[in-house]
Amino acid sequence: MQAFIKKLGFIVTSLLLVSLYAFNSDASQPFEKQTLPLPPLHSQLDPSLGLDISNKTSSAKWAKYSVKIPKNGSLSEALDSLGISAATAFEIKKLKNSRYLTQLRVGDTLHIWVDQSRELQKIDYPRTRGLHYQLTRSDEGFKIQAVEHPVETKIVSTAGVIKHSFYLSGQDAGLSANTIMNLADIFNWEIDFIRQLRPGDPFKVIYEQRFIDGQYVGDGDILAAEVTTAGDDKHTAFLLRSAKGKNIGYYDIHKHNLKKAFLRNPVDYVRITSTYKPMRFHPVLKKWRAHRGVDYGGPVGTPIHAVGEGQIVKRGWSNSYGRVIYIKHAGKYTTVYAHMSRFGKFKQGQWVKQGQVIGYIGQSGLATGPHLHYEFRINGRFVDPMKVKFPDAAPVPKKYRTQFVEYAALMHSQLDRLTPQNTQLASRFE
Prior knowledge:
- Helix content is about 20%, strand content about 35%.
- The chain is of the alpha+beta class.
- The protein folds into three domains: about 110 residues, Nuclear Transport Factor 2, Chain: A (Roll); about 130 residues, Nuclear Transport Factor 2, Chain: A (Roll), CATH 3.10.450.350; about 110 residues, Distorted Sandwich (Glucose Permease (Domain IIA)), CATH 2.70.70.
- Strands 12, 15, 16, 17, 18, 19, 20, 21, 22 and 23 form a ten-stranded antiparallel beta sheet that branches.
- β3 and β4 form a beta hairpin.
- α2 packs antiparallel against α3.
């Protein structure tokens, strides 16, 4: 028993010594204030608001929340979901430039910072990749301003070879979908991408890529391009810009305008199911008759474009053509678009521009499957749309010719250096 009492006394004495040492040690150190992060708000939210709050981060000072705007959502609801008073939302609405933060779109995201007292400190609203609307707080109160993020443009180049479709070959060469489509549009008057391209045909492109804060945000304009068809038939394109940076158009090395009065095809990337023929066996009527147009097969709903500027002189129904549109172009030209599933927004009597959508592929009238029947007429006479020679547009304007010749020569030399094995970052051209 005496041994136990001695042992207990030793333990108590030791604890007292440790406590005194700890007390004396802490007394010599400065007091350090610690701030705890805000508690999560998700459990406090009203599900009926439909707000999506995520990506919460916090610091010792402020907490940041990202709020996605739902259908019929508002700034007031976004702030209320974070426990910010209605008085704050009312104060913001009275500010200059308040429309920057009150005219929100479904799916937009607001990045909101609040302090420990649930007081609003900052809002960042990325309206576009290059433009943010920001609210900041100071001793004078709130302030809203537009903050532009400068776009950096780099010039890059690539080269490829047609292996399968033009689109997939462009992807293989590293081109974005947008640039592939732009390249096809540039050469649309020169090259029939459905019929002319063959495996082994090379193509080269010099184009812009755009960055904001070091992040890639998309491609810019194509500056120069070359596509070879039939082994040695080279088609070139060079972008001409004014001194103010406005795009004037694309021209070949000989200063000819690549744009023609008419598009070669009224639809994009669909197959030709029947060509222009003096006589063919009609699949519905079961008899031989002339086929004075070109049939483009494609899915129902594929957009149909006006091949040239003109006036819609007829939009209606025909027993054989189904839903059909006739466009009268300048001078002696008329084009016909038949078997549509539905019409576009343009009415009879209205004028349309080249490339605008006038309808959609269908199977109306005498048709065995969804397709567009397209006709080209000169002075009322049927001609083969695939063989007719279109009138040229104006060449390089006289005041730009010296500038264009120098620029085209420089870019052409860059294109000559490109091969599919030698794709590289192009130097800047001043």
